[in-house]
Amino acid sequence: MFIILVYDVKQKRVAKVLKTARRYLTWVQNSVLEGEITQANLKKLKKELSAVMNIKEDSAIIYQLRTTKYSSREIIGIEKGGTDVII
């Protein structure tokens, strides 16, 4: 499946959340990552994010798309992030 992850966390946890998410997804913009992921890896990602986030102060939203067949992506301005996935 393809997912888009957006997060809003306190500044002291931003680096940890980003590092955790980049093990599974591609960073595309500040606080936004996307990519293909298996159900098992999605479960791992959620567990790891819960461990580094403070759920009383931080939030993350995961949009799940079963297919990207009917989606498109357009960038206006500079492209941030990249297409590399760090493993």
Please explain how this structure is put together.
This protein is α+β, with helices and mostly antiparallel strands and 87 residues long. The chain has a single domain (2-65), classed as Alpha-Beta Plaits, CATH 3.30.70.240. It contains two helices and four strands. The chain has a four-stranded antiparallel sheet with strand order 2-3-1-4, with helices on one face. α1 runs antiparallel to α2. The longest helix is centred in the middle third of the chain and has 14 residues, at 39-52. It starts with a strand and ends in a 22-residue tail after the last strand. 14% of the residues are buried. The model has no long low-confidence stretch (mean pLDDT 90).
The helicity comes to: 25-40%
Query: How would you name the oligomeric state of the polypeptide chains in this document?
Result: single chain
What is the molecular shape? globular
Helices and strands: which structural class?
A: alpha+beta
CA-CA gap between termini: 18 Å
Q: Spans of 5+ residues with little confidence (pLDDT < 50)?
A: none
Strand order of the largest sheet: 2-3-1-4
CATH class: Alpha Beta
Count of the separate structural domains: 1
SSE ordering: EHEEHE
The total of helices stands at 2
Largest sheet: 4 strands, antiparallel
* CATH architecture descriptor text: 2-Layer Sandwich
* CATH topology title: Alpha-Beta Plaits
